[in-house]
């Protein structure tokens, strides 16, 4: 399936819950959000129905997100169901890692391909400051547990919200110590992210090169999305950057997103999309559902305009509600 600008759309990100066990300062208020009633969240069967229609349109890769997806009961069951769909080549997961130690075996047995772990610091006090929870040890235990399953590709996703250069260098050092890719993601002006200044790729590269030496670009791709990578001599993993602000990659965008309520979005910045849950629960056929999905993909905007002075996101939902 291609959109009207010729981009091939083969990647779907699915939020399976708006609930989270952390309260990161750039994502959620300290007291949490007003949670979506459980009956308004898509069932796993509804998710599978949508994904089955999407495979007919060329979707081949699926990422499960939240909130925190591992807070939803039976996440591994959904992974197994998705892996059983004809046409799906890869099912991956983004998690904060707090619950990963207890669920990694079931995820492995379900066939998960890759796991991305969101982690912004290795310092316990700074972790508590960013997440408003004292859970760093559980995250590190989750990483150690996941490393016992080398068939699962592991990545660390860092939003560089802390100012200390040594914090970024320490996180990057995980790629030297382990076969893990460490990726730095520029802050997006969505929800509470509007209150923070993003740090650009060039600044972070300077910090890391001072700590570890020359970073050499590589052409290999190590995931579903637009991340580009560098290698550092002596490192087992690569250093990656998802730089939506300073290195805009909309012309290569291959994804659409679906919220936990079943709202299909073609672009992070805009509220435009289609309520697939209402369609299904009103009795639509698979052909009607597929047509609605196809329309969203075809009408995908040419780009975001976060960097335009006059433009602001019209999306009012928080990142935890959208699916990141």
Please describe the structure with a list of short key phrases separated by commas or semicolons.
324 residues; alpha/beta; TIM Barrel; 12-stranded mixed sheet; 12 strands; metal-binding; MoaA-like; GTP-binding
Short description:
Its EC number is 4.1.99.22. This protein has 324 residues and is of the alpha/beta class.
Classified by CATH, the class is Alpha Beta
Overall spatial form: globular
Tally of alpha and pi helices: 11
Classify the fold: give the CATH topology. Answer: TIM Barrel
What's the order of the H and E elements?
Answer: EHEHEHEHHEHHEHEEEEEEHHH
Strand content: 15-25%
The pLDDT mean sits at 90
Structure description:
The protein is an alpha/beta fold and 324 residues long. It has a single domain (11-322), classed as Aldolase class I (TIM Barrel), CATH 3.20.20.70. 31% of the residues lie in helices and 17% in strands. The protein has helices at 44-56, 75-83, 100-110, 124-131, 136-146, 165-172, 174-177, 201-212, 276-281, 286-298, 319-322; strands spanning 11-15, 61-65, 90-95, 114-118, 153-158, 181-185, 215-218, 228-232, 239-242, 255-258, 263-265, 273-275. Strands 7-8-9-6-5-4-3-2-1-10-11-12 form a twelve-stranded mixed β-sheet. Helix 2 (75-83) links the parallel strand 2 and strand 3 (90-95). The two termini are 23 Å apart. Mean pLDDT is 90; it is low at 309-313.
């Amino acid at each position: 399936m291609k959109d009207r600008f010729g981009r091939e759309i083969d990647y779907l990100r699915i939020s399976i819950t708006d609930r989270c066990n952390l309260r990161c300062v750039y994502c959620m208020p300290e007291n949490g959000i007003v949670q979506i009633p459980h009956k308004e969240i898509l069932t796993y069967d509804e998710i599978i129905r949508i994904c089955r229609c999407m495979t007919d349109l060329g979707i081949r890769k699926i990422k499960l997100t939240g909130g925190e997806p591992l807070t939803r009961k039976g996440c591994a069951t959904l992974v197994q169901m998705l892996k059983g769909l004809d046409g799906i080549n890869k099912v991956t997961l983004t998690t904060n890692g707090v619950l990963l130690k207890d669920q990694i075996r079931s995820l492995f047995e379900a066939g998960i391909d890759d796991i991305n772990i969101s982690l912004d610091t290795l310092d316990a006090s700074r972790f508590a400051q960013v997440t408003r929870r004292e859970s760093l040890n559980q995250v590190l235990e989750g990483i150690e547990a996941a490393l016992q399953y080398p068939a699962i590709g592991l990545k660390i996703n860092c939003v560089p919200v802390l100012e200390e250069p040594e914090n970024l260098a320490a996180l990057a050092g995980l790629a030297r110590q382990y076969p893990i890719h460490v990726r730095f993601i520029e802050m997006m002006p969505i929800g509470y992210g509007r209150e923070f200044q993003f740090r650009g790729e060039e600044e972070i590269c300077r910090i890391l090169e001072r700590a570890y030496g020359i970073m050499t670009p590589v052409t290999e791709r190590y995931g579903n999305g637009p991340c580009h990578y560098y290698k550092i001599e002596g490192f087992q993993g690569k250093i990656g950057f998802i730089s939506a602000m300073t290195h805009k990659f909309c012309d290569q965008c291959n994804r659409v997103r679906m919220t936990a309520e079943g709202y299909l979005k073609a672009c992070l910045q805009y509220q435009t999309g289609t309520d697939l849950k209402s369609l299904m629960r009103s009795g639509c056929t698979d052909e009607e559902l597929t047509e609605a999905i196809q329309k969203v993909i075809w009408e995908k905007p040419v780009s975001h305009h976060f960097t335009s002075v006059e433009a602001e996101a019209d999306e009012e939902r928080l990142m935890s509600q959208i699916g990141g």
